[in-house]
Amino acid sequence: MKRTTIRAAAATSVAALILAGCGAGGRDGDSGDGGGGGDAAAEGDTTGITDTTIKIGDHKPLTGVAAPGYSEISTGAQAYYDWVNEAGGIHGRTIEYNVKDDGYNPTNTSKVVDELVLKDEVFAIVGGLGTPTHSAVVDFLNQEEVPDLMVSSGAQLWGNDPEKRPWTFGWQPDYEIEGKIMGQYIKENMPDAKVGLFLQGDELGADGEKGLRMYIDDQIVESVEYASGNTDVGPQISKLKASGADLVIGFNTPSYTALSQLVSMKLGYDPQWMYTNVGSDVNLVGSLLAKFSDGSVKDGSSALDGMMTTEYIPGLDTPDDPWVKLWQEVWDKHGEGELTNYRIFGMSQAYAFVSALQASGEDLTRERIVEVIEKDGANWPGPGLAPFRWSEESHLGMSGMAMSQTKGEDYENLTEVLVTDLGDAEITEGDTAAAEDAPPENGIPDVAVVE
C-alpha cells in the first residue's frame, strides 16, 4: 500500500518567511498533590507530574502570519491526547497539554517557554516548532534539565550531539540524510543530469546540500541561495537557467517552491524539479502559486505534476492506510472542522510521546523518560516509514524515507524506503516491517515498560 508523507511543518505565506529563516494501561492513581509530586517510589525530578496527571507544554504560532497550517498541528496533538485521556490515560495519568503562541518569533518563543518551564512547571516540552524559534530555547531547556522531545524541525541540532544537548530529541528525518537519499537516486537513475541547487540560506539548505554533494558533487553545475523574507528570487532562477541545469533541487519552504515555479514560468525555464519534503505539499504549494500569481495561474497544483520529492509518513491522499484511518477516527471524535495533514503531523508526534510515557511505566520522572527513549525508542512501532535513531549516541529522528513523484495531487513511489545516517553511513533498504506497522485496535501504543 502506498503511503505518502506529511510535508513537514511549513510556512504558508511569503510574509511568514520573514520570521522563518514546519484506560491505556497501568494503575488507578491515588489523588495527586496538585503540584509535581508524582509517585513516591520515583527517584528523580517529578515536576509536572501528579498521581493522576502529566502536564506538558509546546510552542507554536497560533496567530500571526505563520499561523495558517502551523496552528493546526497542536489541534491534532490535542485530539490525540483527548483520545488517550478518554481511555483512562497512561498508567493512570491523563495528559494536560498546554500550547502557547509564539507567533513564530524567537523572542516570543523564549518568553513563552520561560513561562511554561518556570511558571507553569511543565514536565516536558513536546513538539516545539521551528529551527529559528526552537534554537532560541534549546540551551535553556537543557540547562534546566527539561525533556525537550520530538522537535518539529529537520535540523541536526536536536540530535547530533547528545552530550551537549542530552534532554533534546528530534522527530522527523534530518535534511542531510534526505540529501543523501536524493543524491544516490540521481547518481543511479539520472547520471547525465546537470544539477542546479536552489537553497534556503540556513541549516535547511546547507545540510541538504551536504548530503547531495556526497553523491553528485560532480554533477552540480550551479548553486544559489535565497534569504528568507526576500521574495525576489528572479536573479537566482535566472542564474540556474543560464547554467544549463536541467534538474533543479530545492531545499526550501513551500512559499519558495511556489516562487521558484512562478519565476521559472515567466522565464520559460522548464527543468525537472525535485524538492525537499518540507516544500513539496502539492495542495499547499498550488494554492500559494495561485495566490502569488494574482490568479493568473488557475490550477497551481497542475504545475507541480512530475515533481520529485521524498516521503516519510502517511497522509490524506492514502485514506485506506490504517494510520490515516485511525487519525480520521480520532479527529471525528475529538476535533472540529476537517482533518488536515498538519493535524496528522501533530497526532503522529503525540503518538510517539505517548509511546515514551507507556514505556516509562508508573514511576515517571524527567530522567526516566530520557533514559527510556535512548534505550528503547528506536524499537517502537508507529506511523513512520522508518524507525527512529534514538540511542545514547544519537537523538536524531526518523532514519529514512522513500523517493516519490507527483501524479496530479497524488504521489507515486520511486524507491523502497531507504534508511541511513549522517556522514558516510551507507544507504540501505529499510525493514519492511517498520513501513507496514499498523496501530493497535484501540489506537494507543502497545509498548512494554522498559526495565
Explain the overall architecture.
It is a single chain. With 451 residues, the chain is of the alpha/beta class. The chain has two domains: 17-173 and 318-398, Response regulator (Rossmann fold), CATH 3.40.50; 175-311, 3-Layer(aba) Sandwich (Rossmann fold), CATH 3.40.50.2300. The protein has helices spanning 17-20, 67-86, 106-119, 131-135, 138-143, 175-189, 203-216, 234-243, 254-267, 282-292, 322-334, 341-360, 366-376, 432-435, and strands at 53-60, 94-101, 124-126, 148-151, 168-170, 195-200, 220-226, 247-251, 272-275, 308-311, 400-407, 410-413, 418-419, 428-429. The strands form three sheets. It has a five-stranded parallel sheet with strand order 2-1-3-4-5, with helices on both faces. Strands 10, 11, 12, 13 and 14 form a five-stranded antiparallel sheet that branches. A hairpin with a 2-residue loop joins strand 11 (400-407) and strand 12 (410-413). The two termini are 35 Å apart.
